[in-house]
């Protein structure tokens, strides 16, 4: 089953939106394989956002993601990566569709509340960056047969 890495960014934690954001993924049916609260170090932030190094917004991005605790989780389900991206909304909250997390709670691209992997390769790399194999729990829910076909 496909896995994706989700981060409730520091603004989401500070604004008391951890539960709201997790709920939106959870009620879609995605299964939580791992979940923890951490403060991202500059070293981890640089590895996670390596693809953006050199861009004008990169220093601000590293400052923002390391500025306070975050909640990181691994979600699984068929098409989890794309489904999570839909639930999050477009990178710029002002361009995100109403009903998405970024549109419903955000205004600015640098305060867009949530991260989600953008493809299978990045998902695998990001999951391994934040979680050990032992932290990734394999289990089934009694409701899985009502959610997964
Ligand atoms: P996403 O988080 O939707 O995957 P991304 O990977 O292109 O978007 O960029 C990572 C983060 O960097 C994004 O959530 C917010 C910030 N960012 C991206 N483009 C930006 C820009 N043009 N100006 C300021 N911040 C930007
Ligand atoms: Mg991205």
Bound molecules: 2'-deoxyadenosine-5'-diphosphate, magnesium ion
Give, in order, the helices and strands: EHHEHHEHHEHH
Count of separate DSSP helical elements: 8
CATH superfamily: Nucleoside diphosphate kinase-like domain
Low-confidence stretches: none
User: Which structural class should the secondary elements be placed in?
Assistant: alpha+beta
Overall 3D form: globular
Q: What is the percent of helical residues?
A: 25-40%
Adjacency order of strands in the biggest sheet: 2-3-1-4
Q: What is the averaged pLDDT score?
A: 98
Any idea what the CATH architecture is?
2-Layer Sandwich
Q: What's the end-to-end separation, in Å?
A: 12 Å
**CATH domain class name:** Alpha Beta
Proportion of strand residues: 15-25%
> What radius of gyration results from the CA coordinates?
15 Å
CATH topology: Alpha-Beta Plaits
Domain tally:
1
Number of strands: 4
Largest sheet data: 4 strands, antiparallel
């Amino acid at each position: 089953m496909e896995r994706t890495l989700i981060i409730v960014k520091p603004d989401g934690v500070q604004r008391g939106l951890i539960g709201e954001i997790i709920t939106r993924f959870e009620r879609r049916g995605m299964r939580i394989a791992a979940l923890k609260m951490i403060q991202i170090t500059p070293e981890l932030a640089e590895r996670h956002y390596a693809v953006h190094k050199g861009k004008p917004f990169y220093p601000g991005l590293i400052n923002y993601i390391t500025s306070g605790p975050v909640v990181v989780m691994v979600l699984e389900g068929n098409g989890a990566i794309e489904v999570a991206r839909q639930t999050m909304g477009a990178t710029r909250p002002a361009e995100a569709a109403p009903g998405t997390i970024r549109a419903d709670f955000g205004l600015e691209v640098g305060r867009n509340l949530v991260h989600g992997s953008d493809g299978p390769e990045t998902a695998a790399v990001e999951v391994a960056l934040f979680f050990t194999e032992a932290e990734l729990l394999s289990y089934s829910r009694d409701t899985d047969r009502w959610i997964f076909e």
